[in-house]
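Fold sample X.
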Amino acid sequence: MPSETPGRLIEVKTKFHSEALKPGGIARSGAHMAAVRSVAALKAQVEQQLDTCIAPLAETLRNWPAPDVAKACEQAAQIRDTAGLADMHLLTEVAMHSFDCLDAVLIDGATMERAEAVCYADALIFARQNRGTNIEPFLPLLKDLESLTTLVISRNRKTA
């Protein structure tokens, strides 16, 4: 297509690249072990970040109505984004529904009952325990959350 800007290749030289070019530099097995340690450390940070957000959000939802819905909405968005980066598909989907519902409450003035909020809290805790990427076994759960989110959003006070 003539209107598209052609892409550019950018050469990135890392410390590993520099060391690997030196005679007697990093051995392949050493580089592999360093990479494994680095990925494990990053994974631990992601897990900690998720726990830091999920526990308070679940507590807020269990004690609904929340005094600070904006903070709960922000936590749901953070969980959704972090879980998406970590390929935690079930948690991403559950957090997305939680965010959509909280956003409707915050922005549109929709109402959510305590029992409904507890469903989101339970779903977040359950989804956090699942480390797999296959969400097919959980499609009924996701369908129920979608229905619940649609119900809460339909209670929009500002347009009613």
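Fold sample Y, listed below.
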Amino acid sequence: MTINGVGPTTTRPGGPRAHLVLWTCLAANVLIVESLFFLGPSGKNELLSIARFVGLHAALLTMLQLVLVARIPYLDRRLGMDRLTLWHRWNGFGLLWLVVTHGLLVVLGYAALDGAPAARTLMALAGVPASLLGMLATAVIVLVAVTSVRWMRKRLPYELWHAVHILLYVALVLALLHQALETTTLAGPLPGAYWWAMWVAVGTALVYGRVVVPLWRNLRHGFRVAAVVPEAGNAVSVYVTGRRLDRLPARAGQFAIWRFFEHNFWWTANPFSLSAMPDGRTLRLTAKAVGRTSAGLRQLPVGTRVFIEGPYGAFTGAAKVRRDTLLVAGGVGITPVRALLEELGGSVTVLYRVRSEAEASLLGEVRNLARSRGARLHLLAGPTAPPISAALIANLVPDVAGRDVFVCGPPGMNMLVLKALRQLGVPRSQVHWERFGLG
């Protein structure tokens, strides 16, 4: 299964505190930068002053953009990579408008200063190294934003979209060079030192979370495919082993980003949930054949080298605030739910919605786990099965308001379940959900 955005009804362990830390740090830096801006020298005219003000805020949003995808353990465990990815997406569109606005104001400001047409001023600025670097960075950001629009994103192969997205690092380098050459970014030694110290801190967090930690974990554990097992519903389970897996910080309900070196190119990666509770000896993912990567997992040779980023995610038992639990799964969303069923204590009820019993992946395992752990399983299979509604949940789980509820499935099912839980008065702090689609 893959991960995406989290809605307003979701809470995470330590989430409120992590919210406070993240947004307080952002607000404090915005306040400091704005103070340094207003205490510094003004621009050559009003438009250029406004352009510099907008540019500084565009740079601050860029820093936030990098922090959101730096995979900082503190934020990931408390907010979840899915929520951080969603914020990254919306922050990206805000960054786009600020960057474009900054560029337009610079052109108009110099055009007014020189008394020249905007088009001629634009061509003249293209001959200035600092301005040219800024233009190139803007062009890359616009390209990435266009490919991230939902209509376009659905029509692009994941691999192509990911490759285009990587160009943002090119834009970042161009933007940093632009700022280094543009001496009016923050004038003065102390403001300049503060500005570049922020960039160093953000860059360090990014390199640590995205490069150092994954490389260290893979060198330490030496992940390889141990077995490949076909499952019902056109799914397949891949068992991965390695050294000292008991020291890998993995929990039931989490996911990892997987690369199989002898199956795809090294840059081809896909997020899949752990479909069994980590036991310190093996990790297991279960994927449905919906794309080239997941469909080809059936042909993975045993011994294939695996590169793993993660595990990530806050869809774990650490989010619980009540003793008892309701687990709701739809389709291949059963994968993290099955892992949670293996770990959670207390009274557990499982609602499993599938198109047909024959397509119910891991159903045998879920039944056996439910039987051995004294959990109740309700299989809602086929077109005649009633939709998941407030009435259905109240009938099957009368004490739902006193339980934590974990929901994982297609977006349509998720929305129905969340609406039903609101109608039943289940507190927000007890509702935890994820949905398909990274990006």
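Sample Y note: The chain has three domains: 15-216, 222-312, 317-435.
Also: The first helix runs from residue 15 to 39.
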